[in-house]
């Protein structure tokens, strides 16, 4: 069993203490090459937590940090399950195990481990405010970015305001670990996000990418979780299922005798992936092709009739 491609030994997320129970924070992924694998995610002991002064909590601490988060056994989604409080627990580290419950008796204990570190952020009216629809209790933004743009292309910007000065924030940082494949760069002053690598809609399983950005004003900061929805563009050519098609045909075959059907697929979605067929080359006048089905038939050539 392996943790995901891309392999992730650990996950880091900033979480507002205002987030309500039920809110999903991060999804731990794992893959198992066995077809009959049945993966189960669990939070393992010991869960570590520290208060805002760095003092470690114990299970007898008044604040129930063990009940602050839970994981969905089948999806690996980590979500809020109890009240969060920056003063009580500013960081909580969850060891997560994934186990193949269908492991064959000959190969038991198919387990892997990862770690989710959650920084609980204090809510303050003085912290920078990102542009809507971001809110302190739902610090998320969604953007759309077309696939296959050149490296270095600026694809969107984040913008935050300092509520004390009323001025735009002039300092941004990508949160370490929030973009494990290093797909994006964040302009330190401008908040402009540009591409470090290729976004390929066809190759992306989730059709999304993500990153987290901090807006910093003095000793105050806020964070935005950004979901990048990758948009399909028409970048794939159709490909025939065969390089050559062969068939035999009686010399007296006449319209509408079906000869054969060719087929091609195009990896793009929607109309960008719709395939039309046509005939060309020597002998093309002797046949017709259905432009949507690819069925080739003999054609009644007028002077042979
Ligand atoms: Ca593509
Ligand atoms: Ca495409
Ligand atoms: Ca296409």
Write the layout of secondary structure elements.
Elements lengths: L9 E7 L7 E4 L11 E5 L4 E3 L18 E3 L5 E4 L10 E10 L10 E11 L7 E2 L9 E7 L7 E4 L2 E2 L10 E3 L9 E3 L5 E4 L12 E10 L2 E12 L7 E2 L17 E4 L2 E2 L21 E3 L5 E4 L7
Parallel strand pairs: 1-8, 10-17
Antiparallel strand pairs: 2-6, 3-7, 4-7, 5-6, 7-8, 9-12, 11-15, 13-16, 14-15, 16-17, 18-20, 19-22, 21-22
Bound molecules: calcium ion (CA) (3 copies).
Protein name: Protocadherin Fat 3
Organism: Portunus trituberculatus (Swimming crab)
Keywords: Calcium, Membrane, Repeat, Transmembrane, Transmembrane helix
Account of the protein in words:
With 305 residues, the protein is mostly beta strands. The protein folds into three domains: 1-123, Cadherins (Immunoglobulin-like), CATH 2.60.40.60; 124-233, Immunoglobulin-like; 239-304, Immunoglobulin-like (Sandwich). It contains no helices and 22 strands. It has strands at 10-16, 24-27, 39-43, 48-50, 69-71, 77-80, 91-100, 111-121, 129-130, 140-146, 154-157, 160-161, 172-174, 184-186, 192-195, 208-217, 220-231, 239-240, 258-261, 264-265, 287-289, 295-298. The strands form seven sheets. Strands 1, 3, 4, 7 and 8 form a five-stranded mixed beta sheet that branches. A hairpin with a 5-residue loop joins strand 5 and strand 6. The model is unreliable at 1-7 (pLDDT under 50). The structure holds calcium ion (CA) (3 copies). Residues 147, 201-202, 232-233, 235-236, 268 line the site of one calcium ion. Residues 7-130, 137-240, 241-298 form the Cadherin domain.
């Amino acid at each position: 069993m392996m943790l995901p491609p891309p392999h992730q030994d650990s996950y880091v997320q900033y979480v507002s203490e205002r987030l309500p129970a039920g809110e999903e924070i991060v999804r731990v992924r794992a893959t198992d090459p066995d077809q009959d694998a049945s993966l189960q995610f669990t939070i393992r002991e010991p869960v570590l937590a520290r208060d805002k002064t760095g003092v470690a909590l114990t299970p007898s601490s008044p604040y129930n940090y063990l009940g602050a988060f839970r994981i969905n056994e089948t999806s690996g989604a980590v979500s809020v399950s109890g009240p969060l409080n920056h003063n009580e627990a500013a960081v909580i580290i969850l060891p997560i195990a994934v186990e193949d419950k269908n492991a064959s008796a000959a190969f038991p204990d198919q387990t892997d481990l990862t770690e989710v570190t959650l920084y609980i952020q204090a809510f303050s009216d003085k912290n920078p405010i990102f542009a809507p629809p971001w809110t302190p209790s739902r610090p998320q933004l969604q953007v759309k970015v077309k696939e296959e743009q050149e490296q270095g292309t600026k694809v969107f910007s984040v913008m935050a305001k300092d509520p004390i000065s009323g001025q735009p924030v002039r300092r941004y940082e990508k949160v370490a670990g929030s973009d494990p494949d290093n797909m994006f760069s964040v302009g330190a002053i401008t908040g402009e996000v540009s591409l470090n690598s290729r976004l390929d809609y066809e190759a992306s399983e989730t059709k999304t990418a993500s990153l987290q950005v901090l807006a910093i004003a003095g000793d105050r900061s806020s964070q935005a979780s950004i979901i990048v929805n990758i948009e399909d563009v028409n970048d794939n050519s159709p490909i025939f299922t065969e390089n050559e098609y062969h068939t035999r045909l009686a010399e007296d075959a006449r319209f509408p005798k079906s000869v054969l059907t060719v087929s091609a697929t195009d990896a793009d979605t929607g109309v960008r992936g719709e395939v039309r067929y046509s005939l060309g080359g020597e002998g093309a006048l002797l046949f017709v092709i259905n432009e949507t089905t690819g069925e080739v038939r003999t054609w009644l050539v007028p002077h042979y009739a």
